[in-house]
Amino acid sequence: MSGLLIAAPSSGSGKTTLTLGLLRALRDRGVDVAPGKAGPDYIDPAFHAAASGKTCFNFDPWGMRPSYLTSLAASHGAGRHFIVEAMMGLYDGAADGSGAPADLAALLGLSVVLVVDCARISHSVAALVSGYRGYRSGVSVEGVILNRVGSTRHEAMLRQALDGVGMPIFGVVYQDALLQLPERHLGLVQAGEHATLETFISHAADVVARCCNLDALQALSVSGGVHADHAVASIPPLGNRIAVARDQAFAFSYAHLLEGWRAAGSEIEFFSPLADEGPSEACDAVYLPGGYPELHAGRLAANAAFRKGMADAAARDAAIYGECGGYMVLGDGLIDAGGARHAMLGLLPLVTSFAARKRHLGLRTVTPLPGSPFAEPMRAHEFHYSTVVEEGQADRLFTACDAAGEDMGTFGLRRGNVAGSYLHLIDLAEAQA
Q1: Which of 4, 19, 100, 360 sits a CA distance of 20 to 30 A from 347?
Q2: What is d(CA 131, CA 114) in angstroms, rounded to the nearest whole number?
Q3: What CATH number does the domain located at 241-428 have?
Q4: How open is the CA angle 210-214-219, to the nearest 5 degrees?
């Protein structure tokens, strides 16, 4: 297999911006690109889609089985230019080091280009990139893009150092205030909330086209012989016709999950709770994904058609599942950052608070408990700042352990056909021998 992994020594190096610029610059050339995001990130893929005009899939080397990663890469990248943005640092993964972007590069045969933030480094860059290149066999670091370079003199120093270790330079990008994206508590502000996103991406593409060796990067991204013996199924669908909430409050659904449900024969339709829409009566399942309901709690509480549509779906025994933000909305109430409580759907005995903020972050392996809408162990990701402040009587949904295998007890609630938890489900867990 082959393709290109845009990686970095650490988060914050600028790899997202440069990946967006590369995707758009290649699209402007007429290149058929296949964007990907390593890891469980559910925000960056929307930016990749905006830049490329193509669906961006997650490729999570910890959360997805190797067979599923290979199958997804084959269906998504075959015959196209496969460009994946890494998460964190190239060798950063779970607590035991597994699931790093380097694992994905080794599995799929991706060429690695390191984006190095040079704002506070000069000749030491040679030692840094030499270490990354030689750290692990089977991971091919082909060269670097020098980012946030301060001056022509700074560039000359960096080039001199890298010439000494024979490290190819694919681009030199100077400091540019226009290449900064705004952030909030879960990462970047969502792509759909940027009024000037197209201007930003166009500028990033101009910078990449002018400052990087686009021909060389394009050559590295050729997917070549990506193939798999057969398609590999992921998490089974919730129903035959699934209503999926999708808007700025419910934006964290994984493309691979929805496509997997379609491949299994389910119909998917979307509705917007923020636009006061409910699921259609034809649906036998409803999925409320994560997002930012805490930023829109008052509006959601006031949307009568959404509330009635969800109550009707529950009454007709549709399978209703919410995760993270969707889980919060299924509860009795949500307390916003200012301390105001807003009535939610009341389908689960749960009150959550964004005023009592605490970061919850980690990789999880979950096992469904009896009565769950799921049947097999799965890999999942937890990332939220809200906390549970009230919880009533209901069945538990999952047992879970962390990436090191430590027992974390139970997660989520279930009451009849309504279930949810804070965990974002990614893929089925690898079967144990």
Answers
A1: 360
A2: 12
A3: 3.40.50.880
A4: 175
Domain parsing of the chain, residue ranges = 4-220, 241-428
Q: Cα torsion at 344, 347, 351, 355 (round to 10°)? A: -40
DSSP letter, residue 275: G
Contact 402/39 with Cβ under 8 angstroms? no
Residues present in the chain in total? 433
What DSSP designation does 381 have?
E
Task: Kindly give the pairing relationship between strand 81-85 and strand 395-402.
Answer: unpaired
Report pLDDT digits (tens) over 257-314.
Answer: 999 999 999 999 999 999 999 999 999 999 999 999 999 999 999 999 999 999 999 9
Q: How many whole angstroms separate alpha carbon 192 and alpha carbon 271?
A: 16
Give kind and range of the element (H or E) at residue 159.
helix 152-163
112-130: b (≥16 Cβ within 10 Å) or e: bbbbbbbeebbeebbebbb
Q: Are 113 and 170 in contact (CB under 8 A)?
A: yes
Q: Model confidence over 358-382: pLDDT tens digits? A: 888 899 999 999 999 999 999 999 9
> What torsion do the CA atoms of 214, 219, 224, 228 make, to the nearest 10 degrees?
-50
- Higher pLDDT: 232 or 208? It is 208
Alpha carbon distance 264, 238 (integer Å): 11
Residue given tokens 């919410």 in the structure block: 322
Q: pTM value?
A: 0.93
- Catalytic residue list: 324
Pick the CATH number of 4-220 from 3.40.120.10, 3.50.50.60, 3.40.50.300, 3.40.920.10: 3.40.50.300
User: Would you say the C-alpha torsion 30, 34, 38, 39 has a positive or negative sign?
Assistant: positive
Distance of CA 422 to the CA centre of its chain: 16
| Angstrom distance (rounded) from CA 178 to CA 182 | 11
